[in-house]
Amino acid sequence: MLEKLLDVEEDACVENVAIGASTITVFLKALKQFCGDVIEVHSNYTTHENRVLYEVILNSSNEVERQSKPKIMLEAGQQAGSQPVMLALYVIEQLVACEEYSDMIEKVTWVILPCTNPDGQEYMRCNREPWYKNLKPLEENQSFGVDISRNFDDSWNACSLPDNIFSHDYRGPTAASENETQFISDAIEKHKQDLKAYVSLRRDGHAILYPFASKSITTEALERATSVAGEIAAKVNQRSGGIQSFLNTSIHDMNGDARCGHSVDYAYNKHGIPFTYEMRVFPETTNRIMSKFQTLPKGYEGVLRNGYFSGIRELFNIIASDKT
């Protein structure tokens, strides 16, 4: 397979290449061609700039095993940046290509939305100002972009944010106004019957965060979800700990204030998905500060990536063993 796909000096591993919109398209087309028995790729949604929003479904090739299995959804890149997208592609690569993980697609159906803000991601790749929004033009091109992570139809209007189109956290004119938001919401709606877990992979952090984002409360119903977050954090720390701990807490407590219109709250409150998390990966800001005082270990990003995959595998183990 690799001999047919690779040009001279091309790398065989997706985690070692620059991640852009074209990379995602080529990667998924190759997997569809060579691993079509276990992968479905849907491309029914596009962004304002006409980039494709892909839905990837990974499942056993055994038709009997395809029926009535729990589902786990991973969604990456709402806040632009390439590293969460790379992690999502890495997970796809491991599940499809590694025999040691074959049980992960035999016992669970995986729904992966590998890049949910490709316009923002491409803008970030040009090393312009820090960017977290999409690139939808606003008010006759006076400004650009809505913060997708604040645009979901859950407590959307509960936070006292100014409707300032020039703000980096502009939440949009209405809830679910954006193509990207509608894409994610529709995917959750489509798979909700068997969906046991939804994880939103986001940039610049090192933590697993559980509901709620819009308020600082805990409920008995969340006790199991918070316990599972602790188990995931322990597994990540076991594999990649050393420089900094992988934390687990609520989204509200991590941010220090309310974040309304959050996809995790939407999945939990509107659709009753029992395990809903925001997973922050690759601590850009912390690493940038630390590197001024000490040299980060060689291969540190790879260590983190393997740690995050271990955490995702731990979530799979919990779902597959029906400890829910």
In words, what does this structure look like?
This is Peptidase M14 domain-containing protein. It holds the Pfam family Peptidase_M14. It comes from Leptosia nina. GO terms for molecular function: metallocarboxypeptidase activity; zinc ion binding. The protein has about 325 residues and is of the alpha/beta class. It has a single domain, classed as Aminopeptidase (3-Layer(aba) Sandwich), CATH 3.40.630. The chain is about 35% helix and about 15% strand. It has helices spanning about 1-5, 20-35, 85-95, 105, 120-125, 180-190, 225-240, 250-255, 265-270, 285-290, 300-320, and strands at about 40-45, 50-60, 70-75, 110-115, 135-140, 145, 195-205, 205-210, 245-250, 275-280. Strands 1-2-4-3-7-10-8-9 form an 8-stranded mixed β-sheet, sandwiched between helices. The protein has a two-stranded antiparallel ribbon with strand order 5-6. Helix 6 packs parallel to helix 9 and helix 7 (about 225-240) runs antiparallel to helix 11. It is globular.
Number of domains: 1
What is the molecular shape? globular
Order of helices and strands: HHEEEHHEHEEHEEHEHHEHH
| CATH class designation | Alpha Beta
Sheet-strand content, in percent, reads: 15-25%
Structural class: alpha/beta
Instruction: List low-confidence stretches.
Output: none
Average pLDDT metric: 90
Q: CATH H level: which superfamily? A: Zn peptidases
- What's the number of extended β-strand segments? 10
Percent of residues in helices comes to 25-40%
Q: Which radius of gyration do the C-alpha atoms yield? A: 19 Å
In the CATH classification, which architecture applies? Answer: 3-Layer(aba) Sandwich
> Major sheet: order of its strands?
1-2-4-3-7-10-8-9
N- to C-terminal distance: 39 Å
